[in-house]
Amino acid sequence: MAMTVHCDIVSAEEEVFSGLIEFVSVTGSLGDLGVYPGHAPLLSELKPGPVELRKQGGEQDIFYISGGFLEVQPHKITVLADSALHAGDLDEAAAMEAQKHAEQAMADQTSEFEYSKAASQLAEATAQLRTLQQIRKKLSR
Amino acid sequence: MAVGKEIKTQIASIGSTRKITSAMEMVAASKMRKAQDRMQSSRPYARSIRGVIQHLAKSNPEYKHLYLQERETKRVGFIVVTTDRGLCGGLNVNAFKAAVSSMKEFHDQNVEIDVCALGSKAVAFFKSYGGNVVAAKTQMGDQPEVGDLIGAVKVMLDSYEEGKLDKLFIVSNEFVNTMTQKPNVEQVLPLKAEDDDERLNHHWDYIYEPDAKELLNSLLVRYIESLVYQAVVENNACEQAARMLAMKNATDNAGNLIDELQMVYNKARQAAITQEISEIVSGAAAV
């Protein structure tokens, strides 16, 4: 049987996932990273993007998080998300709408503050769409 | 018949007080449920981030963040979390007792104290008790938000970073269950390792991404925000539970008072009737 490690995904509002997993991949601030059981201790900041799990037994699951932190211990993985959603609950139309909206806001920037806000909205919307694409890829495979 | 006019009015006034207290009890009961839900929904995050910080405190990092360094204690900060409103039993008083007894320990060692008061009751208390209040936040309502707290907490964190404060504590009530709330004094800074996990007792450090300084800064600030937020949310649940209990007792007591007064009134009325009858009878006999 494959090695497993305990993984918790929590957002500020609720506990999203808690259980044994064989593999997890997240979007770190320096790029995507995959973690197997027994990984060296790691602390990383997370960017908005998908969190992909392979649960014990091989079942796949995808969540979307809007940034946060990742802690890896050899015996435990913790994802501290600012907010998290099951990828199935993502709304593609709304994400595309948000992306368009944010792009527009960035185009007619009025102040520094609004620009950075729009930029972070754009990053989130793009990450949501990326998560959805990943699910679709999984389904077609 | 003018018997017991005063008693009658007294019964009526206690009756209306009872109506008010029982209404407040019901309001508190319904608010408590929501406050409890809020407390429970943010608990997993608070627990997980605390776990991460505990691990961090046990690591042997190359870069030692300010929040992890023990310093000589010359001045300490207290964040005291209380309610905005009264009529909630001994909740605030117990928190103040806990705060004052631990402040006294520092005072005896000639350590100065700064206070950050969250909630009107804390502000009022430290105004009359005489504490150096450097930050305050009141009227957070039933749904406190992290954004409301950041300002007040930042004052404390800034003075910690500048080296004005050497320790930071938070005083708040812990929600044990509806009947019990326990005042708690907890050290926030510098971070202390409490977790005795043997797997972490060897010499190790994290791999940091992007770099240790930036990452720890945002992580630790997030941790303290989460800690204070959790304390405020939990205190809110405590407030509603304590108020519900206090109002339930008040309602019961009002009921007892009314029963007693009713008994006194009935006896007086009976005595008056008896007297009247005996007057009539003796009057008739005299004729």
Automatic annotation (TrEMBL), chain A:
Keywords, alphabetical: ATP synthesis, Cell membrane, CF(1), Hydrogen ion transport, Ion transport, Membrane, Transport
Residue ranges the record marks as coiled coil: none
Record-linked SUPFAM superfamilies: Epsilon subunit of F1F0-ATP synthase C-terminal domain, Epsilon subunit of F1F0-ATP synthase N-terminal domain
Pfam families: ATP-synt_DE, ATP-synt_DE_N
Entries under Gene3D superfamilies matching the protein: ATP synthase delta/epsilon subunit, C-terminal domain (1.20.5.440), F0F1 ATP synthase delta/epsilon subunit, N-terminal (2.60.15.10)
GO cellular component: plasma membrane; proton-transporting ATP synthase complex
UniProt name for this protein: ATP synthase epsilon chain
Organism: Pontibacterium sinense
Gene that encodes the chain: atpC
From TrEMBL, chain B:
GO BP of this protein: proton motive force-driven plasma membrane ATP synthesis
Compartments, record wording: Cell membrane; Membrane
GO cellular component: plasma membrane; proton-transporting ATP synthase complex
CDD domains per record: F1-ATPase_gamma (cd12151)
Membrane topology category: Peripheral membrane protein
Gene Ontology MF: a single term: proton-transporting ATP synthase activity, rotational mechanism
Record InterPro entries: ATP_synth_F1_ATPase_gsu, ATP_synth_F1_gsu, ATP_synth_F1_gsu_CS
Entry keyword set: ATP synthesis, Cell membrane, CF(1), Hydrogen ion transport, Ion transport, Membrane, Transport
PROSITE patterns, alphabetized: ATPASE_GAMMA
Quaternary data: F-type ATPases have 2 components, CF(1) - the catalytic core - and CF(0) - the membrane proton channel. CF(1) has five subunits: alpha(3), beta(3), gamma(1), delta(1), epsilon(1). CF(0) has three main subunits: a, b and c.
Family: Belongs to the ATPase gamma chain family.
NCBIfam families: ATPsyn_F1gamma, PRK05621.1-1
Main function: Produces ATP from ADP in the presence of a proton gradient across the membrane. The gamma chain is believed to be important in regulating ATPase activity and the flow of protons through the CF(0) complex.
Identification of the protein by name: ATP synthase gamma chain
Organism field: Pontibacterium sinense
